[in-house]
Each structure stands twice: as structure tokens, then as C-alpha cells.
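re: that chain from earlier
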Amino acid sequence: MPVFENKDVTLNYATFGDSSNPALLFSNSLGTSYHMWQPQIDVLQTEYFIICYDTRGHGKSSAPTGPYTLNQLGQDVIDLLNHLNVDKAYFCGISMGGMTGQWLAIHHPDRFHHLMLCNTAAKIGNEAAWRDRAQLVREQGLAPIAATAAPRWFTAGFINDYPDVVAALSSALAAGSSEGYASCCEALSVADTREQLKDIRVPITVVAGIEDPVTTVADGQYMVDYIPNAKLATIDASHISNIEQPEAFNKLVRQYLNIQ
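^ sequence. v structure.
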């Protein structure tokens, strides 16, 4: 796969489909890689020019010593779009990727037609908990986090019905970069867009999982209440909704990121 040498980081990315189609960029969640988007890549690459990348510290992207900032996570996206000569794109990010999308909507609205912010919040969790998790990971590695990830990511029914999918994602998390994960935790510890939501001037769809214990429907509704041009869509899933309910998720992408 191609890589982009950018400032302090090497970003691993991949593109799918015809570059003459509208560009749609996907941004992964904490502890995953761009491969989490395979259910979307398989179905949507005939309609969009899909761009996927591993967030810094994740997958095959490099993990420079942190802490990272939300500004860095967002600027990596802008730099990648520039590298690919994409002037304007659609965007879909989940959890941490949705937080990155908020930064993009606030700071670079001219680069996006529409952003889908999925299973995310204007403020995810609290600073102390994120810093504690970063310290744990630096001291003990990612195995303890991976061992307890499944109930945060998926409903009990999905865990029971698709154990191979859950095991593969958990194993990939355990094998990831401890420094990269911890540094992203530190970025999330202070990331807070609540005061800036009112300034967003690009169409937004917030997707919330009805069973999501991490970023709730109420978190999604809060964002919609404060973003001037935003809509809320719900999906019968937990936190990693694009994997738990791929058909429903893809339907929402087609519905809200409709090609004009």
C-alpha cells in the first residue's frame, strides 16, 4: 500500500474506485486501522473514490512519540488530501475519527461537501480517565485494553454471533503500537469542540448507535442541537456501528452523502 511521508509521521493509506468519482474519506476509531471500513469499501467503491488511511499511531502508519493533539489528527487529513490532489471530499469518521471530523468541519469547511460524524461526541469521556488509560498502556501494553474492548465496541448479541470478527479486531488492537494508542488517548483527553460547534457551516450528519455505551444518542443529539446545519440518524448498534450493522450503515451513507 502507498505511504505518505508527512512532517513527523508516515501515513499508510489506500484508495479504491475511480478517481473521477466524488472522493469519500474514511477515518478510523481508536485502536483500529483503515481495514475496519472493509464493509463500506466493498459496497461503495463503485460510487465513490474512497480514501482510507491509518490514523497516526495506528495500523501501518508510524507512531511518533506523543502526546498527539486533535489539531495534528485533523491536519494529517488535510495534508493527505493535498497529497492526493483532492480539493473537496465527503468525510465519514467513527469515534476518534468523528472527533477528527469535527475539527475538520470547524477549521476547513471549504474542503468538504458533507461530513458524517459517527459514534462520537463533542467531548468523549473525561481527561483523567484518558490519561489513566494512556499510562496503563505505556506500562502494560495493549493486551489489557484489548481483552476488555469487545463489550465497549459491540452488543452482546453481535459478540455471540460473530466471534471471529470480534477476535480479529481485538487481536489487531493488542498487536498495535502502545505509544500510538497512548498518544491518541492524550489527544482525546483534552479534545473538546463544544464551544465551536455553533461555528460549523458545512452539512453534518451525526450517526448515533442506540446501544452505544461510549458515545450515546444523547451525545449525538447535543451535537445536532448546537451545529446549525446538522441532522441526527440512529442505528441499532453499539459503538462500532459500521461493522455491527454494515447494511444499515451503508444505507445511511448513501442517504445522507447523496451525490448531486
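Residues 3-122+192-256 form a domain with the Rossmann fold fold (CATH 3.40.50.1820).
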